[in-house]
Amino acid sequence: EAAVTQSPRNKVTVTGGNVTLSCRQTNSHNYMYWYRQDTGHGLRLIHYSYGAGNLQIGDVPDGYKATRTTQEDFFLLLELASPSQTSLYFCASSDRTGSSQNTLYFGAGTRLSVL
Amino acid sequence: GEQVEQRPPHLSVREGDSAIIICTYTDSATAYFSWYKQEAGAGLQLLMSVLSNVDRKEEQGLTVLLNKKDKRLSLNLTAAHPGDSAVYFCAVSARVVGQLTFGRGTRLQVYA
């Protein structure tokens, strides 16, 4: 079973602060994703990647950077955090070439509060 | 792009009753349909998925119905139990393997 681990699980920062959210998957999936989940909006895609060094823009990328350093590791960076970025962030992975095709495997989430 | 509407946003049912969640989508070329469950404090987990050539799929007390004419996808939990209490999301894709668009979620509460 795919394992996706996010850290930290909770984070509090101040407006203008610098935050890095980490995600590691151990199932050799090619695709990795960052979503944010907000009441009334469901899940919205921020960035995704199909391999080390690759980055694709999602639907709500403003204010976020991301970097895929290895097959396993995908980071989300908020360089000047704002209160509007207070949210629950999920990382997910998928193997679009494997038998599970479109199945997303999610981490447990990181709750970020920007004061 | 694809728009997905999910309803109801909240649903409360008695144990043993059925619970029905509906999603409507806009792109008639949508090819992949799925339902995810999110339990408290956890990430989403896939419940079931179907392709556009399937109208009905049943697994372990869950029924997924796809009405392509009306662009409607539904999830029916027959004989719901308290362990089914969670948030449910539909997610669709224009291709068999491609980017997913999620509904806004339905919070289901099953009471004894």
Strand content of chain A: over 45%
Question: What's the total number of strands of chain B?
Answer: 11
Structure annotation, total helices of chain A: 0
What is the residue-mean pLDDT of chain B, rounded to a whole number? 94
Helix content of chain A: under 10%
Shape of chain A: globular
- What is the helix tally of chain B? 0
Q: What structural category do the secondary elements of chain A indicate?
A: mainly beta
Rounded to an integer in angstroms, the radius of gyration calculated over CA atoms of chain A is 13 Å
| Alpha carbon gap, first and last residue of chain B | 41 Å
Quaternary state of this entry equals: heterodimer
Query: How helix-rich are the residues of chain B, as a percent range?
Result: under 10%
The poorly predicted ranges of chain A are none
Elements of chain A, N to C (H/E): EEEEEEEEEEE
What structural class is derived from the secondary structure elements of chain B?
Answer: mainly beta
Number of strands of chain A: 11
Biggest interface: A-B, 19 and 23 residues
Instruction: Indicate the radius of gyration of chain B in whole angstroms.
Output: 13 Å
Tell me the major beta sheet of chain A. Answer: 7 strands, mixed
**The biggest beta sheet of chain B, please?**
6 strands, mixed
Low-confidence stretches of chain B: none
